[in-house]
Specification:
This protein is an alpha/beta fold. It has 7 helices and 8 strands, in the order H-E-E-E-H-E-H-E-H-H-E-H-E-E-H. Helix 2 runs parallel beside helix 7 and helix 3 runs parallel beside helix 7. The radius of gyration is 40 Å and the shape is elongated.
C-alpha cells in the first residue's frame, strides 16, 4: 500500500480547516495551529489516520463486502461518483433517502421496481401502455435512477460507510450507528470526530482535498479487491489440483465396473450359445459320416 506523502496533502490544501469561531473542541488533538482566524490541521496526523483507514477499508474489500460512499455536497458529487465507480462500490450523491440503511428492505423494493421497468421495456410490455402511462413510468424510472441508480447492485447492507462532511450527512451517520456499521469519514475542524470510527482529519470543502483523500482510499480498496481475486484464483487452482486425482480414480473405477459388467453379461451369452454351436457341428458332421460308407462300397465294386 502506497505511503501518504505529507507534501502531497499540503499541495492539495488538506490542511485548511474552518474559522476558529466555528470549531468543535473535540477536534483539538488534530489541529496544528491557528492562522489568520483559520485552524490549520496537523497533516502528520492526517497521513497516519489515512493509512489506518486505508488498511481497514482494504480488509473490508478483501472480505467481499461493499463500502457505501456518501457525499451530497456539490463539490464532492462528481469526484465520489467517479472514484467509487472505478472500484465498483455503491455511492449516494443525491439526497440521502431516509431509512436507506434502517429500512433497507423498502429501498430494495424500489430498486426492484426499477429492474421491472427495464424488463417491461425489453419484453415489449412497455409499448402496450398508453402514452400517459409510458410518460409516468419514464418519470418514475428517472427519479429512481437519480436517487438509487448507484446502489442497484447492493443486495445487502454495506460493510462500511465512507462519509464526506459528517455534519451534512448526519442522518446517514445516525442510521449507520444504529446498525453498528463502521463509519469512515473526512472530518473537518467544525465537526465532532467522536461520531466516527475511523477519523481522517481533512478539509472537506475543497474539491482538490476531497479528490486527494478519495484517490488514496480507492487505491487501497482496489488493492484489497485484487488480493481477494488472487486468493480466489489460488483456491480454485488448489481445489482443481486436489480434485483431479479423485476424478481420475473415479474414471478408472467406472472403466473397471464397465469391463466387469461386460464380462458378466458375455459369460451367460457364451453358455447359451455353446449348445447351439455343438448341435450345428453335429448337423454338419452327419452328412459327412453318411457319405463315408457309400464311398467304401463304390471302391469295393470297382475292384
Amino acid at each position: 500500500m502506497a505511503l501518504v506523502e505529507v507534501k502531497e496533502l499540503l499541495d492539495s490544501g488538506v490542511h485548511f480547516g474552518h474559522l476558529t469561531r466555528k470549531w468543535d473542541p473535540n477536534m483539538a488533538p488534530y489541529i496544528y495551529m491557528e492562522r489568520n482566524g483559520i485552524h490549520i490541521i496537523n497533516l502528520y496526523k492526517t497521513a497516519a489516520k489515512l493509512e489506518e483507514a486505508s488498511e481497514a477499508l482494504a480488509k473490508i474489500a478483501i472480505s467481499g463486502r461493499k463500502i457505501l460512499f456518501v457525499a451530497t455536497k456539490k463539490q464532492a458529487k462528481d469526484i465520489v461518483s467517479e472514484k467509487a465507480g472505478s472500484v465498483n462500490m455503491p455511492y449516494i450523491t443525491e439526497r440521502w433517502p431516509g431509512g436507506m440503511l434502517t429500512n433497507f428492505v423498502t429501498i430494495r423494493k424500489a430498486v426492484k421496481k426499477m429492474a421491472t421497468i427495464d424488463r417491461m421495456k425489453k419484453d415489449g410490455t412497455f409499448l402496450t401502455l398508453s402514452k400517459k402511462e409510458r410518460l409516468q413510468v419514464d418519470r418514475l424510472k428517472a427519479k429512481l435512477e437519480k436517487n438509487l441508480g448507484s446502489i442497484s447492485e447492493m443486495t445487502r447492507l454495506p460493510g462500511a460507510l465512507f462519509v464526506i462532511d459528517i455534519k451534512r450527512e448526519h442522518i446517514a451517520i445516525k442510521e449507520a450507528q444504529k446498525l453498528n456499521i463502521p463509519i469512515f469519514a473526512m472530518v473537518d475542524t467544525n465537526s465532532d470526530p467522536r461520531q466516527v470510527d475511523y477519523v481522517i482529519p481533512a478539509n472537506d470543502d475543497a474539491s482538490k482535498s476531497i479528490e486527494k483523500i478519495l484517490t488514496n482510499v480507492t487505491e487501497a480498496i482496489a488493492e484489497g479487491l485484487a488480493t481477494r481475486k488472487a486468493e480466489k484464483e489460488s483456491k480454485d487452482a488448489e481445489k482443481a489440483a486436489t480434485e483431479a486425482p479423485k476424478k481420475a480414480e473415479t474414471t478408472e473405477a467406472k472403466v473397471e465396473t464397465t469391463e466387469a459388467k461386460a464380462e458378466t453379461t458375455e459369460a451367460p451369452k457364451a453358455k447359451k450359445a455353446a449348445p447351439k454351436k455343438v448341435a450345428k457341428a453335429k448337423k454338419e458332421a452327419a452328412p459327412e459320416a453318411a457319405e463315408a460308407p457309400a464311398a467304401e462300397e463304390i471302391a469295393k465294386e470297382q475292384k
